[in-house]
Design brief:
Elements: H1 2-8, H2 14-33, H3 40-57, H4 62-81, H5 88-113, H6 121-148, E1 153-155, E2 158-159, H7 167-185, E3 193-195, H8 198-231
Antiparallel strand pairs: 1-2, 1-3
Helix pairs in contact: 2-3, 2-6, 3-4, 4-5, 5-6, 6-7, 6-8
């Protein structure tokens, strides 16, 4: 199949569409309908692996692509290692590596989306994928704070306390703060999750600002690119 060959050889923007599909699958199928217990945790791993692989393929520059694959491999290895030894240090390392990968991939893909040239469907889908990556980035940041700072958040007036360092607890925490991240990014803010720590509050404010500014800047840039391409 020619389109698959183009994606695998990094010669096509279709990799951006593949990344968006993987993110939608993880966020709107895996997280809502699969429990992190039993076989569910393995399915969650598959969802994360798809995002990591597609995110690495979506990085266009060869050198940066190698870095992305390296970070993805470290993330998967530390995540799989938690099956044998779900220690606090290993789980925190996994959160940090995952966050670094997501930031790196988002910046690299954003550069590809905003580059000069015609505005294609795949580039628009890549821009949407970056928006979803932002939600995962801030979700990881909130989860890291919750795992390191006692009483940093409250959910329905009950403070979150990490009482054990099992994979099930870890995946539940990541799911809860991914949800909180997206309602903050979209400025919905139901109020069922409340940051109590000062750092968490400021990060929530930053995410809300990005959630407002990103669509406006994105729309202006894409319109500018389209007008420039037509004039040329």
């Amino acid at each position: 199949m020619r389109w698959l060959e183009e994606v695998l050889l990094f010669r096509s923007d279709r990799a951006l569409s593949f990344l968006l599909f993987s993110l939608i699958l993880l966020l709107f199928v895996v997280y809502p309908f699969i429990s992190p217990e039993g076989i569910g945790k393995y399915l969650i791993d598959v969802g994360f692996a798809l995002v990591l692989i597609s995110g690495s393929f979506a990085v266009e520059h060869r050198g940066l692509r190698r870095v992305a694959f390296g970070l993805a491999l470290v993330y998967l290895l530390t995540r799989w290692a938690t099956y044998a030894t779900p220690s606090r240090e290993l789980l925190l390392t996994n959160v940090i590596v995952g966050m670094v990968f997501l930031v790196f991939a988002a910046l690299a893909i954003l550069g590809r989306v905003f580059a000069a040239g015609p505005v294609t469907r795949h580039r628009v889908e890549g821009a949407v994928a970056v928006y979803l990556l932002l939600g995962l980035i801030f979700g990881s940041a909130f989860a890291f704070i919750a795992m390191t700072v006692p009483d940093a958040f409250a959910i329905d007036t009950t403070r979150i306390a990490i009482t054990g360092w099992s994979r099930e607890t870890y995946d539940q925490v990541m799911g809860a703060f991914t949800y909180f991240s997206f309602i903050t990014l979209t400025t919905v803010g139901y109020g069922d999750v409340t940051p109590l720590n000062e750092m968490a509050k400021q990060i929530a404010v930053l995410e809300a600002l990005i959630g407002q500014l990103y669509p406006a800047i994105l729309l202006a840039r894409l319109v500018s690119l389209q007008v420039t391409t037509r004039n040329e």
